[in-house]
Each structure stands twice: as structure tokens, then as C-alpha cells.
């Protein structure tokens, strides 16, 4: 159902480096780099994650209530992605742990304040 999700950036080279390292942990790479937007994923035609400078030329801002959840496939992978994000300069929004039966997640803010969740359900 999801084609891609997007977060905004005011420093695209810095964001591209952050997400290249972070999403590389999930086997993803930059599949499309169109100058103002970079789309990361495993293959064309599968869901992707994008980072971009806003089309309208205005500063990128963080949405209140917006979050992108990434599912790396296991609790150990959630822990690994959380640790990787923190090592890249992310801010913690909640260390990995079971939030409710069968739902394990960790939460961070990227370098520009966009909220990410790393989750494993099951």
C-alpha cells in the first residue's frame, strides 16, 4: 500500500549521509537521487523512504504527530537500528522495549527532529 514516505531536510547532504548509514543497516541504499530528493530502499517497486528539501522552497519543519515507522524484521534489529541512529547523532524519544504485548519499538529524532520508530510486531 505504501509507495514511499518523506521527511524534510534543510541540509540534504547531511541528511543523505545520516540515512545512507542508518538505512544501510536494513540493506537499503539510495535508489533515486534527483537533487532535492533522495529515495532509499531495497529495490524499485518496493516501499521507499525519502528525504528532501521542500518543493515550495520554504524551510523544512517537523510535523507534530508525524512519525515514520521502519520494520527491520526482529527485536534485535530494532535494537541495532536504535543504537546506530544514536551513534549517528539522533536524539532518543524512547529506548527499545515492549510497548504492549507483541509490539516492540524504539523511537528517535533524526538530525533535524523528524521522528522515527523502529518496530517489530509479533
How would you characterize this protein structure?
The protein has helices at 12-24, 75-87, and strands spanning 4-8, 29-33, 37-41, 48-52, 68-70, 91-100, 103-109, 115-121. By secondary structure, the protein is an alpha/beta fold. The strands form 2 sheets. It has a 4-stranded mixed sheet, with helices on one face. The chain has a 4-stranded mixed sheet with strand order 5-8-7-6, covered by helices on one side. A hairpin with a 5-residue loop joins strand 7 (103-109) and strand 8 (115-121). The longest helix has 13 residues, at 12-24. The protein is globular. The mean pLDDT is 96.
Question: Care to give the gist of this entry?
Answer:
The chain is α/β, with parallel strands linked by helices and 122 residues long.
Task: Please write the string of helix (H) and strand (E) elements.
Answer: EHEEEEHEEE
Number of helices: 2
Q: Describe the global form.
A: globular
Q: In which range does the helix fraction lie?
A: 10-25%
The strands making up the biggest β-sheet line up spatially as 1-4-3-2
For the residues shown, what is the average pLDDT?
A: 96
> In angstroms, what is the radius of gyration?
14 Å
Number of strands: 8
The chain-level structural class is alpha/beta
Share in β-strands: 35-45%
Largest sheet: 4 strands, mixed
Euclidean distance between termini CA atoms: 20 Å
Unreliably modeled segments: none
Amino acid at each position: 500500500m505504501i509507495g514511499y514516505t518523506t521527511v524534510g531536510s534543510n541540509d540534504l547532504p547531511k541528511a543523505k549521509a545520516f540515512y545512507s548509514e542508518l538505512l544501510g543497516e536494513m540493506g537499503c541504499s539510495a535508489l533515486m537521487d534527483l537533487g532535492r530528493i533522495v529515495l532509499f530502499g531495497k529495490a524499485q517497486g518496493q516501499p521507499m523512504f525519502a528525504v528532501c528539501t521542500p518543493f515550495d522552497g520554504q524551510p523544512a519543519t517537523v510535523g507534530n504527530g508525524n512519525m515514520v515507522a521502519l520494520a527491520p524484521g526482529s527485536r534485535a534489529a530494532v535494537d541495532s537500528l536504535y543504537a546506530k541512529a544514536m551513534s549517528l547523532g539522533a536524539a532518543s524519544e524512547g529506548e527499545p522495549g515492549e510497548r504492549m504485548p507483541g509490539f516492540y519499538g524504539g523511537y528517535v529524532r533524526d538530525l533535524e527532529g523528524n521522528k522515527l520508530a523502529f518496530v517489530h510486531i509479533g
